[in-house]
Specification:
It is built from five helices and 26 strands. With 286 residues, the protein is α+β, with helices and mostly antiparallel strands. The protein folds into two domains: 120 residues, Cathepsin D, subunit A, domain 1; 107 residues, Cathepsin D, subunit A, domain 1, CATH 2.40.70.
Length: 286
């Protein structure tokens, strides 16, 4: 009898230890929004595009991590009756001036998910984009005030978690079990997140590089790559990413970055943006 009781006590203790070592999986609401790359145009060579509804009108928006805010076509804004206010001219990644106007916040639907674009900017979009119904740009890293936004470039999904997980690192391992994540610091400018991270051409010193899903190609400044590019390998978060071609050009007026890593290097990664925090997590295939 005492042996039976001892055995039961051992099994009970083992069960308690097992329960303690296997914490319950955290449940966090998550919305999955599909996107595609089916845009073939010299201006946007197969960049991620998501379908959205703004003011009852169905449009396509670029998912552009190179943008530091939300952008709508000026013609669309006027057609929706949004009152535009003159704003200080912006500039692109190469220092060229871009005429902009400030818009009021506007409701937007992405699939079953509804939210509000907070104070987007209006700019004239190229005719080639308007003809395809591409009438704006979404900056995933600046989409919400709280929560987590994920861009899975392999599964072609934009994932939205409106609330913050208690343990983000553990939660990501559960959501993406086939990924290893690396966290990198990014640049915060006037409460807007710019995905500028340390990266390098193979064998060279790290410099600030923009992770830009709105660009189809990878570029480095002529100051950094003045002696040319020997291969197409970019070192990022301890990994080597192969790109088909690396352009060398001037980044005048953009002293805070020395390169752009485009979709040719980012394709296949998962980009995770904890909203309002100056960091990005990159999910690499194991």
């Amino acid at each position: 009898m005492w042996k039976a009781r001892l055995f039961a006590a051992i099994m009970l203790a083992a069960g308690v230890a097992s329960c303690r070592s296997a914490p319950r999986r955290e449940t966090v609401e998550m919305i999955r929004i599909p996107f595609d790359f089916d845009v073939k145009d010299e201006l946007v060579p197969r960049n991620p595009v998501v379908s959205a509804e703004i003011g009852g009108r169905r449009v396509l928006l670029l998912l552009d991590t190179g943008a530091n805010g939300q952008v709508l076509d000026r013609g669309l804004a006027l057609g929706l009756g949004l009152k535009a206010a003159p704003a200080e001219a912006g500039q692109d990644h190469y220092g060229n001036k871009v005429a902009t106007e400030d818009l009021p916040s506007v409701p937007i639907s992405l699939g079953r998910w509804r939210t509000e674009l907070a104070h987007p900017t209006a700019i004239p979009r190229p005719q080639s984009l308007r003809e395809r119904g591409i009438l704006g740009t979404l900056s995933p890293q600046n989409l919400l005030e709280t929560g987590v936004v994920m861009l899975d470039l392999s599964a072609r999904e934009l994932l939205i978690a409106p609330t913050n997980p208690r343990d983000l690192d553990r939660w990501l391992k559960e959501v993406f079990p086939g990924r290893d994540f690396a966290a990198l610091p990014t640049r915060m400018e006037q409460q807007s997140l710019e995905v500028v991270v340390p990266a390098a051409l193979k064998g060279r010193a790290k410099v600030p590089v923009l992770l830009d899903t709105g660009s189809g190609s990878t570029e480095f400044s002529d100051d950094y790559a003045k002696d040319g590019v020997r291969d197409g390998i970019v070192e990022l978060a301890g990994r080597e990413l192969k790109v088909a071609r690396i352009e060398v050009r001037s980044f005048k007026g953009q002293a805070y970055m020395s390169g752009i890593l485009g979709l040719d290097g980012l394709r296949g990664l998962v980009l995770v943006f904890p909203q309002g925090r100056a960091r990005v997590l990159l999910g690499f295939a194991k």
